[in-house]
Each structure stands twice: as structure tokens, then as C-alpha cells.
Amino acid sequence: MSETIAWIGLGRMGTAMVERLLAAGRDVGVWNRTASKADVLVAAGATRLDAVADAARYDVIVTMVSDDAALRTIHSESGLLNGPVAGRVWIDCSTVSVEAALAAAAAARAAGAAYVSAPVSGNPGVVHTGNAIFAISGDDEAAVDAAERVMSDIGRKVYRVGPGASANVVKLCTNAVLSVIMQSLAEVAVLADGLGVRRAQLMEFINDSAVGSPLTRYKTPNIVELEFPQTFSPFGQRKDIRLALAAASDKEIPMPVLSATEVEYSRLVASGLGEGLDYAALVLQVARDAGMQLRPERAA
Question: Which of 97, 114, 195, 290 could form a disulfide with 143 if both were Cys (CB 3.0 to 4.6 A apart)?
Fold first, then answer.
């Protein structure tokens, strides 16, 4: 089965994901609040949608938006669910709170549509290479099946993680770990530099050790070369941390390490040191706090 797909939200991630669908031969309609963002996809074969309500003509509607407020707008203000969406599947790939996902699911259900949470793990570069992964969850088995088929045309692996908003929980937990690891890498990189060890040598060893991972390897050029092309902003990373902390607070689950990490991301955002840079710019903040001036190195 090859569902037709309406895609709403064409930021860097959304655009990269639609490009994968088009390359897979999918029939995709696209809409974005800033219409010009759809131009490159229309040129590649997508159909431009004049209004959000036009998405109801497609079998599956996918949204990729920035936060809870944007997702709420989709179902409360944009008109998406005011059209003939009964029997349609709405898949949301955004990183949002459990509460926002459940509210969207309830709105979809009231309109006769099925809702699936399908947050993506990766950045635009990872999506382009087909290596993104998805966690998916929902209460309608057929809708979850459809989501798995669509997401399989975008990424490397799709994980079914349970009912309801389980996928949103998985994504927030994953991003929490990622945030803490990045802060720790920044700290030890500055420590090694201050003790006379080249950051390139440190990262080469870490990457081959038990704690090495795709993340440590991917972030090595940032830490070593001190160049920070943005894959995800410090502001966006802090947003995800705060969503996880809010969920933990609701359940009275202490998260001291993540709480301390949130402070460091907040300092990076407030200082402006990470403006326009990747969140790996944390290493610059750690160095500044230590009174050190890091110099770019060549990766090993």
C-alpha cells in the first residue's frame, strides 16, 4: 500500500524528510505558513497545498512543528480538523510534551481521524543519508501500521514503543541523555586541553572506548575544530530538556543531573555565545568559565 501524504511544516527537518518521501516515489502535498519554503519541494515533484484544510484530500497527514504551541495551533486554529478528515491518519513527528500529544490525539479522535506520535531522532544531515530513526505509538493499530510504512520510507528504523503518547516519552528521554552527554563532553574536552592533552587525541580515544557512540563521533569535529554549523540550536535543545523536566516534576521524579544540565544550556542561550551555532558550542562556555582560550585543532 502506498498512501498519499500531506505534509505540514517545512523547516529544515520537515524539508529533508519530504525529500526522502519524494525520492521514494510518494505522492506528497506540502504546506507551510511561509509559502516560499515549499518552492524547492514543489520543484522536486511535491504538490503545493493552498490551505491546511487541503490536507484532508490525502490518506495521511504528517506534521513537523517546533513546539507544543505550534502543534496546538494545528488542531485548534489552522482548520486542519475542520475539513473531511474522518478516516484519515494524522502523524506528528514533532518533539512535544506528552500532554500536547494527548490533546492532539483527542482532537483527532473527535474529528474521526486517528493520531499517531512519531517523533524523529536525527538532524537534517542524518535524515538526508537515510539514517534517522523513529519511535511511534498510538491507539489505532491500522494507523500505526500506516505510520510505520511512511516513516520507513524516510529513515533507517521504526520502533513501535506502545500506545498513546509513549513515543513522545521515548523521544524526551533520549534527548535528555543526549543533552547530558554533550555537556559532559564539553567539560572533559576543556579539562584535557587545560592539562596539556590535545582535544583531538582525547576524542579519538573516547570514540574507541566503551563510552564512544555515534554522538561522540559526530560531535568530535565541533569539539576539536571549534566550528559549529547548526544541526540543532541551544534554544531547541533546552526546550526539550525543559519538557523532560516538566514531565519528571509532574511525577515527582528527581532528575538532578538533567536539572544541572538545563542551567548550562540556559546560560549558553542567555549569554548569546551560542547564537546561530550548534548546541555543541557548550564547549566554548565551559572554556570561558575556566578562563581558557581554546584554539582550533585538526581532527585525528
Answer: 114
Alpha-carbon distance 75 to 81, whole Å?
A: 6
Task: Give the C-alpha separation, 35 to 92, whole Å.
Answer: 20
Tens digits of residue pLDDT in 179-200:
999 999 999 999 999 999 999 9
3-class SS at 170? helix
pLDDT at 282 over 70: yes
Q: Which residue has the cell 523532560?
A: 244
CA neighbor of 268 nearest in space, from 289, 248, 247: 289
All domains of the chain, ordered by start, with CATH? Answer: 5-164 (3.40.50.720), 170-289 (1.10.1040.10)
C-alpha neighbours within 13 Å on the C-beta side of residue 258: 24
Identify the three-state secondary structure at position 6: strand
